[in-house]
Design brief:
The protein is an alpha/beta fold and 427 residues long. The chain contains 14 helices and 19 strands. Helix 4 packs antiparallel against helix 8 and helix 5 runs parallel beside helix 13. The structure holds zinc ion (ZN).
Length: 427
């Protein structure tokens, strides 16, 4: 069997791994790069508007024979781990005949992204898989494992062929709302793993102040108890764990969680995956502020916006009971409140990766709004990675999705295989 890491051996983003056994070839993830060859951040929006030829030339797309249109489709299938752009973002360039396997939640969220991007891309031949149900693709037997991650319904994969067992961790952690999945993995790890392809996003990174997603909820409850303030919460509309934490903290402090139509759309899409996900029409303390941005326009265009009409809340209604509200931050929402001089006695809860904070800081500082950071990582801490490795006892560890592959040697011992991007190795 031959393994090629096309991208990800020494960086976070652009994940793509190829496994070949005779004529069977599978790819795992097909992500958008986050950095260029000089580790400078790339603008992902600028990448996805370029042609396939341009991206192949720049090395953002991989020269994999049989992957693109106008070639015989030689790739048996693509496995996606989860719905984060750095794991699926280049999918629209592949031959749509190639089947792409993913979880149901992953499919829903990818569809959301394509819907708002309004492109005519063929979404390809999407097939959904169920956790812990093995399936066969050519020489490969593939078993998806449901894992805890900030990306919804994330999967790791056990891949078997030629008597070898490979475990691809995808992105995962042990401190989110699905922590139990990680605990169970430690208790019942995949056995006899020859090669563990292990993400290491948090290696070399500060772990921050809050350990777990339930710490986040507790901290938000403490903050929301302050009854003299309106809170803005900056968080991702696709980080469902975090939305649930904010929602539950609102519920426990009798606040209304005001979301935008885009976030409502995401939650509504995911209700078929999990009935526990908060919905605007099932819970009294969720309201929707129809912020006039491009997402809302898109929904108005095909009338999907009207579904949310009954939960609509106006600027004046928010202002009337501002001390009982927490608003999900969005660019135009904060601009509207700023223009109407409605940001006095307001606080921003910044609940995203701190790398993005500098973009919004000037706005809030201009309006003299204090910022409190409440965030926990979507990725496993070093200690979690170490306990996972200890439980699995793999014969070899292959660093992936990390900026510090060489650190694996000191963290996990000498069975680490340091590979280079695009260099095939025989397993
Ligand atoms: Zn991820």
């Amino acid at each position: 069997m031959i393994l090629t890491i096309h991208r990800g051996a020494k960086e976070i983003g652009g994940s793509c791994i190829e496994l070949q056994s005779d004529n069977s070839i599978i790819l795992i993830d097909f992500g958008l790069p986050l950095v260029d060859e000089n580790k400078e951040q790339v603008n992902s929006r600028k990448i996805i508007t370029q042609t396939k030829e341009a991206l192949l030339k720049k090395g953002f797309l991989h020269r994999i024979h049989g992957l693109y249109e106008n070639e015989p489709p030689l790739i048996n299938s693509i496995l996606l781990s989860h719905p984060h752009q750095d794991h699926y973002g280049l999918l629209s360039y592949i031959n749509p005949k190639i089947p792409v396997y993913m979880s149901k939640g992953c499919k829903e969220l990818i569809e959301v992204s394509y819907y708002f991007r309004q492109t005519n891309y063929d979404l390809g031949n999407i097939k959904t898989v169920r956790a812990w149900k093995p399936f066969k693709k050519g020489n490969f037997t593939i078993t998806p494992y449901l894992v805890d991650h900030s990306g919804f319904d994330a999967l790791a994969y056990l891949i078997e062929a030629e008597g070898k067992r490979i475990f691809y961790s995808g992105d995962f952690r042990g401190h989110g709302r699905k922590k139990i999945l990680f605990d169970n993995l430690l208790k019942h790890p995949p056995r006899n793993i020859d090669y563990l392809i292990l993400e290491g996003s948090m290696i070399g990174r500060d772990r921050g102040k809050y350990n777990t997603e339930s710490d986040i909820e507790k901290e938000l409850i403490n903050i929301f108890k302050d009854e003299e303030k309106l809170f803005f919460v900056a968080c991702s509309s696709q980080n469902i764990d975090r939305l649930v934490s904010v929602y539950r903290a609102c519920l426990k402090t009798k606040r209304t969680f005001v979301i935008d139509p885009y976030t409502a759309f995401v939650l509504d899409k995911l209700k078929i995956v999990s009935p526990k996900i908060p919905q605007h029409n099932n819970w009294n303390n969720i309201k929707i502020f129809f912020v006039p941005n491009s997402y809302t326009d898109r929904m108005a265009e095909d009338k999907s916006l009207y579904k949310f009409k009954a939960s609509k809340i106006s600027f004046e209604e928010i202002q009337d009971s501002r001390n009982k509200m927490a608003i999900k931050d969005a660019y135009l929402t904060r601009t509207i409140f700023g223009n109407k001089k409605a940001l006095i006695d307001t606080e921003l809860i910044y609940s995203l990766w701190e790398g993005y904070l500098d973009d919004v800081k000037p706005f809030w500082e201009n309006h003299r709004v204090p910022i409190v950071q409440v965030h926990t990582s979507g990725h496993a801490y070093v200690e979690e990675l170490q306990s996972f490795v200890k439980a699995v006892k793999p014969k070899h560890i292959i660093p992936n999705h990390t900026f510090y592959p060489e650190k694996y040697l000191e963290l996990f011992g000498n069975n680490v295989m340091l590979l280079k991007d695009k260099q095939p190795v025989v397993l």
